[in-house]
Structure formats: structure tokens, C-alpha cells
Design goal:
Oligomer: single chain
Helix content: 25-40%
CATH topology of the largest domain: Aspartate Aminotransferase, domain 2
Distance between the termini: 17 Å
Number of domains: 2
Radius of gyration: 22 Å
Largest sheet: 7 strands, mixed
CATH architecture of the largest domain: 3-Layer(aba) Sandwich
Strand order of the largest sheet: 4-10-9-8-7-5-6
Number of helices: 14
Structural class: alpha/beta
Shape: globular
Bound molecules: pyridoxal-5'-phosphate
CATH class of the largest domain: Alpha Beta
């Protein structure tokens, strides 16, 4: 594999300029420049995000909503401005439709807890076998609590939702109360037809929840086009800090839901014999929220908006194409998701088998790649049922963002060839 020039310029983005905003990308690992291909796990952060957080903490820090002094007003203003930016980023009708959470997992738990209030035995919740554990376990817990039944979409051989089978089995039917699906798979990279499935859900009066963790950071997002009623996403995968995520919800739906956690800020009036609750979004934000983290997420959204999400998506498409082509030409590699670019996101997972038929464990792959400066993820990627369905225990995953170069992909391909030879001998 040839290593191309690091300073290449993408058709869509000036990647060299983008990279100069991410100091971490200039560091060495194992004595060579880092090639960071683990953005589906967590993305790197531009200087603008770190600066916004540090400026907030160093100059404007106070608690929100309850401090009636200048700093309190500034902190509240910054927190609510971040909410408005995040709302605009996903096409929300109003800022109050964004509930800040600590990550996507908490957002999905919030959805399951509050939507589940009226569920009864016989009701059905539908997910898919390709979900992250965060979009399975909260629904399993809800089913256990209420006696509802959890059902799921299967996948086709190429790693897409098996819609024919779902239709033949009547998966979404008059007993369905909730459908919760990932927009983009964190393992297969599949972009699911959520708007179509939302149509099925709404036709039977069910609520459509979308896990946008791998979609919102990479694709232009419009909650109206997605057809979702609730959309969960997480800040740290979209160039923002850890500790902040969001649940978008249609305002009337949020207003009809009971609280999730109880405490300060989420109430209207508290008496010893009972309490009334604040309207959304504060009803769902008990206690002191992640203020500096929200400000950081607001800066990440500003940064992505300035790049343009169409340009980010186009750039990642180029990277994914290069990755899929390279991996399909690498001996011993079995790709797990769709091999073509149609409805395909940038998470690319695979297994590696040596010339003498020995499957290299992803932890070994990861370690050898790391020794060559290449960072990927190996394991079940919090999608154990999907790996069971695929008949494998684990896999290795490479993933990209706006700062990823084809040169880094070439470094991965070289390191994979080296890994295969290391474990199985070249033949
Ligand atoms: C598809 C998907 N859903 C949910 C999550 C959970 O995100 P978080 O760990 O930030 O809650 C992830 C993270 O890997 C993911 O990829």
C-alpha cells in the first residue's frame, strides 16, 4: 500500500486546515505520527471546544437558574444559548425540545423510563438486533418492569434491516407501543430507513425513538425528515466533550411525559404531601446540569456548522470509500457491513484471518496496530447480540471524522498486512 501525502486536500473539506484545529493529531504514538481511526468510539476535540470550556470555567462560572448575580446570569445565558445551538443543529422547532443528559445512554434511559409509564403486559416494544447495548438494555428493563414484550428486527446477509421478514412477521402491529432504532449502526455502518419505519410506527399509534449517536455527528440532521418523536445523541462523538448528551423530543410529547429523576430544578412547587413539575426541558434535568460541558457542545456545534455538515458527510464518504476498497483488497479481511456506499456510514468493522486460517483476535490486531501508531477499536463494540447474530465473538472497527485522511487509512491497511504476516506467515 502506498502512503499518500498527509496534507492532501479533500474535494469537500480543507482537511489540512481542519487538522490544524486538533492539536492531538500532531502527537506521536509508538514513535510515529498518530493515525486516529476510532472516532465512532469518541471523536477528537478542536481547540475551539477546549477554549470555550476553559473560558467559561475561568471567566463565567456559576450555577445556572438559581444564582441571581452577574455570573449566574452569564452562566445561565451560556447554558441556554448552547441548548438553542444544539436545537438548531438537529432542526428542532424550539430550544425547549432539547433535554440535556450526560450521554446518549442516559437519553435512551430517560426515553424508556418516561414512555414506559403506561405500558402493560401484552404491549410490545420493537428494537433491532444491530442496536448498541444502550438501545437494548433500557427497553429490556422496561419490559421486565411492565410485562411488555421486547421484539426485534433481524438483519439481511449484507447487514441491513430485514424489512421483508419484519413485514411478513407483522413485527410492527397494533400491540406495538414503542419502536426504537439506531439511525446508523456503530458496527455495520448501515444507515437505517428510520423515516420509513417511523411511518410504520405511527400508523399503529406507536412512538418512534431514534438513537442518533452515530448519525448526528456525521450527517446533516433534520428531526422532521427522520420522522422521529424522540432522538438521542451524545456530545463526545460530535467533537464535543464527554459528560453531555441530549434527548430531542417533540414539545407536546415531552410535555405529556412524567419526570425521570427527581431533585432540584425539575420542580414547580414542592410540598411534603406532593410536588408539581416544571415544563420541559427542565422537568427532565434534575440537579445541577453539566454546564461547562453544554457550553463545549455548543462550541462543537458551531464548529461543525462552520464546516458544513454536507461537506463533513461528503468527506467521510470519500474516506469510507477508500477504506472499503482497501479492506476488500486486503487478504484475510471479512467485512461485516454493507460493502457499497449506499446508505452507508463511516464505521467499518471486519475480522482478520491469517493465511493458515487462524482468526486473529481483535485485541491482538488492536495492539499490533497501536505499535504502528494506528488507533482502532476491537471487541464487541457494545453490540454483543449483533456479533452473536453474525456468528462471531468480536471484530475490529475503523472509523473516521472530518479530520481523517486517506493517508491514515493507508497506514491502517499497511499495518493490517503486517499484522496478518506477524500471526500467520505470508504465503
Ligand atoms: C449507536 C450508539 N448508541 C449509543 C451509544 C452510547 O453512547 P454513550 O456511551 O455516549 O452514552 C453509542 C456509543 O458508542 C453508540 O455507538
Amino acid at each position: 500500500m502506498t502512503v499518500t501525502d498527509e496534507t492532501e486536500v479533500s474535494m469537500a473539506l480543507d482537511v489540512a486546515a481542519v487538522r490544524s484545529d486538533f492539536p492531538i493529531l500532531t502527537r506521536d504514538v509508538a514513535g510515529v505520527p498518530l493515525a486516529y481511526l476510532d472516532s465512532a468510539n469518541t471523536s477528537q476535540k478542536p481547540r475551539a471546544v477546549v477554549d470555550a470550556i476553559s473560558d467559561h470555567l475561568l471567566r463565567h462560572n456559576a450555577n445556572v437558574a438559581r444564582a441571581m448575580h452577574t455570573l449566574g446570569a452569564e452562566a445561565t445565558g451560556a447554558f441556554e444559548a448552547a441548548r438553542a445551538k444544539v436545537a438548531a443543529f438537529v432542526g428542532a422547532a424550539r430550544p425547549e425540545e432539547i433535554v440535556f443528559t450526560k450521554n446518549a445512554s442516559e437519553a435512551l434511559n430517560l426515553a424508556a423510563h418516561t414512555l414506559g409509564a403506561g405500558l402493560r403486559p401484552g404491549d410490545e416494544i420493537v428494537v433491532s438486533v444491530m442496536e448498541h447495548h444502550s438501545n437494548i438494555v433500557p427497553w429490556q428493563l422496561l419490559a421486565q418492569r411492565t410485562g411488555a414484550t421486547l421484539r426485534w428486527f433481524d438483519i439481511t446477509a449484507e447487514g441491513r434491516l430485514d424489512l421483508d421478514r419484519a413485514r411478513a412477521e407483522g413485527l410492527v402491529n397494533e400491540r406495538t407501543r414503542i419502536v426504537s432504532l439506531t439511525w446508523v449502526s456503530n458496527v455495520l455502518g448501515t444507515v437505517n430507513p428510520v423515516a420509513r419505519i417511523a411511518g410504520w410506527a405511527h400508523a399503529v399509534g406507536a412512538t418512534m425513538v431514534v438513537d442518533g449517536s452515530q448519525g448526528v455527528p456525521h450527517l446533516p440532521t433534520s428531526v422532521a425528515e427522520l420522522g422521529a418523536d424522540l432522538l438521542a445523541f451524545t456530545g463526545h462523538k460530535m467533537l464535543g466533550p464527554t459528560g453531555i448528551g441530549a434527548l430531542w423530543g417533540r414539545y407536546e410529547l415531552l410535555a405529556s411525559l412524567p419526570p425521570f429523576l427527581g431533585g432540584g430544578e425539575m420542580i414547580e412547587v414542592v410540598r411534603m404531601d406532593g410536588s408539581t413539575y416544571a415544563p420541559p426541558p427542565h422537568r427532565f434535568e434534575a440537579g445541577t446540569p453539566p454546564i461547562a460541558e453544554a457550553v463545549g457542545l455548543g462550541a462543537a456545534v458551531d464548529y461543525l456548522t462552520a464546516l458544513g455538515m454536507d461537506a463533513v458527510a461528503a468527506h467521510e464518504r470519500e474516506i469510507t470509500e477508500h477504506l472499503l476498497t482497501g479492506l476488500s483488497q486486503t487478504p484475510g479481511v471479512r467485512l461485516l457491513g454493507p460493502a457499497d456506499l449506499d446508505d452507508r456510514g463511516g464505521a467499518v468493522s471486519f475480522t482478520l484471518t491469517t493465511a493458515d486460517g487462524f482468526e486473529v483476535h481483535p485485541h491482538d490486531v488492536m495492539q499490533l496496530l497501536d505499535s504502528r501508531g494506528v488507533a482502532v477499536r476491537g471487541g464487541h463494540h457494545c453490540a454483543r447480540p449483533l456479533h452473536d447474530r453474525l456468528g462471531i465473538a468480536t471484530s475490529t472497527r475503523a472509523s473516521s471524522h472530518a479530520y481523517t485522511t486517506t493517508a491514515e487509512v493507508d497506514r491502517l491497511l499497511d499495518a493490517l498486512a503486517y499484522t496478518r504476516d506477524f500471526f500467520g506467515g505470508a504465503r
